[in-house]
Amino acid sequence: MIKYKSILYCSDFSEEAEMAFHHAVDFCQRYGAKLHLLHVLHSGYKYMRHVVDEYVEPNKERTVDADLMAEAEADLKARYGDRLEECNQAVFAVRVGVPFVEIVRYAREHEVDFIVMGASGSSELDKQTFGSTVENVARRAHCHVMAIRNPELAFKLPG
Fold it and tell me: For 19-70, what is each residue's pLDDT tens digit?
């Protein structure tokens, strides 16, 4: 019998990530697992991931510092903290870097045994540069990975 003890939910605040949140909470409750909620700050640059375009005015940038990390973690808690229902053990974390690398690194560092994330995210640059984040996580993670797709966005076969 499979028993998950440590679940990682990854959010880029997209619609599919929101759907994945509900599944992560369900698994957390079902298994009595610790739930880690992780957000990797978005950068529009391939080689300067410390310059991000989140938590600033449109078309502006910001260099990552302690204040930005605290602001991002507070936002993560505000978005999800009061919706954890019966998940008694929750950890909120924010990272900077290439999303799939940081997700896999976090999962290994915290001995996560199940990763839940949206099937497609919000960053076109990362898809063009590195490929799909969820695909890269699934290939490199040491544990199970579940990708949640919005059924309304499902591919329709012609004919």
Answer: 999 999 999 999 999 999 999 988 766 667 778 777 767 777 778 888 889 9
Domain borders along the chain are: 6-41+72-153
Task: Kindly tell me the burial class for residue 124, based on how many C-beta atoms sit within 10 Å of its own C-beta (0-12, 13-18, 19 or more).
Answer: exposed
Q: In the structure encoding, which two tokens stand for residue 135, read together?
A: 């695909």
CATH number of the 6-41+72-153 domain: 3.40.50.620
Question: What's the DSSP call for residue 151?
Answer: G
Residue type at 94 in one-letter notation: V
Segment 128-143, tens digit of pLDDT? 444 588 999 999 999 9
Provide the token pair at 4. 């998950």
Total-model pTM: 0.86
Distance CA 33, CA 6 (A): 5
